[in-house]
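#struct-help
A.M.: can someone run this one for me? Single chain, 343 residues.
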Amino acid sequence: MKNILTTNNNLLERVKNYILKSKCINDKDKIVIAVSGGPDSMALIDILYKLKCELSKKYNIDYVVIVAHVNHMLREESEDEKVYVENYCNDRNIVFYYLKKDVKNESIQHKMGIEEYARKIRYDFFEKVVNETGSNKIAIAHNLNDNVETILLNIIRGSGIKGLCGMNYIYGKIIRPLINISKKDLLDYCNYNELKPCFDKTNEQDIYIRNKIRLNLIPTIEREYNSNFVNNILRLRDLAILDEEFLNSYTTQIVDKAIQKKDEDCIIFDFEDILKQSESIKQRSIREIIFRKLNNVEGMENIHIIDILKLLERNIPKKKYIIGNKFCIELIQRNIARIYCNK
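D.P.: on it. C-alpha cells below:
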C-alpha cells in the first residue's frame, strides 16, 4: 500500500511540476475539461480538481474547471458513461455540460468518416462551451502513449520535422497536462483513487488506424525488432523539438522583418529577403505568414506553399494565388505582396 501511495503522490507532484514548467495553466484560467469517462480523462479531471488548492495557495494559480461530455451514441454503454461523469461532477460541485449526437447517421449525411465526424462534433462542442462560459482553455487527456501513436501516425502520413515533435502541452486554446504521463501510471492512479472509470471496448478493436498502431504495429516492432522502441521514439521527439524550436525562432525573425503592415483586412509583406533563404526557411516563412493571417494552416498542403513561392519568384505585379474561399496572395508591386481573406 505504501508503494502505491507513493506512486499516487508522485504522479500528482509530476503533473503539478509539468503545469508549472509548461505554464499550460495560469492564474484566473477557466478550463473546459473534455471528460469521456475513460481512465485518462477521469484521471485528468481528478488530478486538476485535487491540485487546485495547492496551486492556488502556494503558487497563486487559481483556476476554474468545467466538464464537457459528449455522447456519440455509438455504444450501448454511452448513457451509463454520461451518468457516471455527471455524478462525479455533482459530488464535487463541478459544472457539467452534455451533448448527445447520433454520430453514425450524421456522419453519413455529411459524407465524413465516423471517426473524423466524431472529432469535429467534440471540438465544436468544446468551443461552444468555452464561449458560453467565458472560458479560455480546453484540457484534453492525451498522454505519453497517445503522443507516441501520433508521431508514428505522422511518420506514416509522410510528416516533416514538426510531425516528429508530436503533441505539446499547449496548442492554441488546447492544453494537455498529462502529455508526459504514461497510460499505465494513469490506470494505476484510477485504481488507487477508486475512480472506477468506464472502458471503451472499441479501443481494443483494430478498426481505426490509431488502434492498429497501438495494438499491432508497436507490439510487433517491440517484439521483433527493438524492445526499447517507444523510448527511442520519445528520444527522436526530443531531438526534433530542439530542431523545430530553432527553425521556428529563425523563421519568426525573417517574417517579422518582412511584414510591413498587419491589420484585420490584410498582411503586406516584403518577400525579397524570404526568397534568399534556404528552401526550408522559405516554405516555413510562407506558412507562418498564412498562419498569422488565418490563425491556422489547416488544409494547406506542401504543393500550395510551393506554388505560392513560384508566384513570388516570378515577381509579376497584379498576379494572384487564390486558395478557394480561404485567402488570396496578390503581388501589389515588385517584391511586395499582400495576403487577405476571400469574401
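A.M.: thanks! DSSP finds twelve helices and eleven strands in the chain.
D.P.: also worth noting: Residues 54 and 61 are 9 Å apart (CA to CA).
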